[in-house]
Amino acid sequence: MAGTLDGIRVVELTTVIMGPWATQILGDMGADIIKVETPQGDTTRQSGPKRNPNMGSLFLATNRNKRSIVLDLTKPEGKEALFRVIETADVFVHNLRPKVCSKLGLGYENFKDRFPNLIYCAAYGFRAEGPLADKPAYDDIIQAASGVTDLMTIASDQPRYVPTIMADKTSSYNLVMAVLAALVNRERGGKGQAIEVPMFEALVDFVMVEHLYGAAFEPPIAQMGYERLLNTMRKPYKTTDGYLAVLPYTDRNWFDLFDIAGRPELKEDPIFKTFAARITHSEEVYGTLADIIATRSCAEWQEILDEKNIPVQTVMSKEMLLNDEQLNASGFWKLVEHPTEGTLRMMDPPIRFSETPSSIRKVPPHLGQESVDILREAGFSQAEIDSLLENKITLQAKK
User: Fold this and answer.
1) Is 127 helix (H, G, I), strand (E, B) or coil?
2) pLDDT in tens, 243-296
3) What are the DSSP E strand ranges found in 250-375?
4) Contacts of 131 (CB under 8 A, 6+ apart)
5) Does a structural domain hold residue 322?
6) In which band, very low, low, confident or very high, does the pLDDT at 397 lie, cut at 50, 70 and 90?
7) 231, part of any domain
8) CB-based contact 89:23 (threshold 8 Å)
9) What is the CATH number of the domain that holds 51?
10) Residues 140 and 89 placed together within one structural domain of the fold
11) Which whole-number Å values give the CA distances from 300 to 244, 253, 286, 314, in the listed order?
12) How many C-alpha atoms does 356 have within 13 Å on its Cβ side?
């Protein structure tokens, strides 16, 4: 069955995680993704363990369902080749900083008249009109700038980075959402347009949903920061043999827990009686919960709390997830065969469509694997292709 975006072509000029993961999601949904790379290739080709050169694990995780073409955009012939390829596209995505983009002649003003129906998406660190517009930005930089690393002082003696690429991946979702919305608008009779997806503003928006708090009012009527989340006692609780995430949420959850624990008197304690009181006294509440959970094993608590529909989950390591019962039952882990890289483990597209399912159709490509094919599709003659190859404007990888 064809995917939701079958018939949509996306040309991407992105590297690292934010752009490539976003376009991979679009590819999983059925779009034809043409990945434009420099002669050196996406930097993630060198990231992580690899069996062969230029095929690192981070590249493999973010570049399936794509075709790779190499173009040297520092040369006029390479840039014109890019424009000719884009003539066949619905969407163009890049993550060049504004000054670099203008220097290469790839700003929206270079596209809008020639391609009035093109969705042009620029993804970078900071909004273009701000003073930080041309500052280099990677995940660590944006985590620090957005307040995420400061929030981590709750669990540490100093600001720390969250050990996942939070800024990149959060921004990737924003990019996917923006492109899909622009495509819907165009299908309803609109035209192409420029989209800006800045990592900094996207992550500040993400953080401040709950932590704007008292500053949601002007002037502020309380402190910033949602108390329950800033509680130092909010953490997985130690059992007799491991750790559990336990979150009694409703009044019924709490009262059932107190009965199970043999502490019925806590149901009449003003600190525990209402949701508002538990938020106000979250440190004492979580301290009491920690004492209760310490009395039994993970398995005992899991069984008892599940019976009462109290939210609970064993703390899982990344290694444990490879054999997780839920993930295996739902077909989340996919083993696919790559012609040169052997058997690869991939995550199933998490969103499911009943009529237009997402799928893994193409394994991650070698650098320039489809250069010649894509140029032919764009109308290049064999003589033109030979010239581009000879002058190293493009290259064709061995398949």
Assistant:
1) coil
2) 999 999 999 999 999 999 999 999 999 999 899 899 888 889 999 999 999 999
3) 312-314, 333-338, 342-347
4) none
5) no
6) confident
7) no
8) no
9) 3.40.50.10540
10) yes
11) 11, 17, 20, 11
12) 12
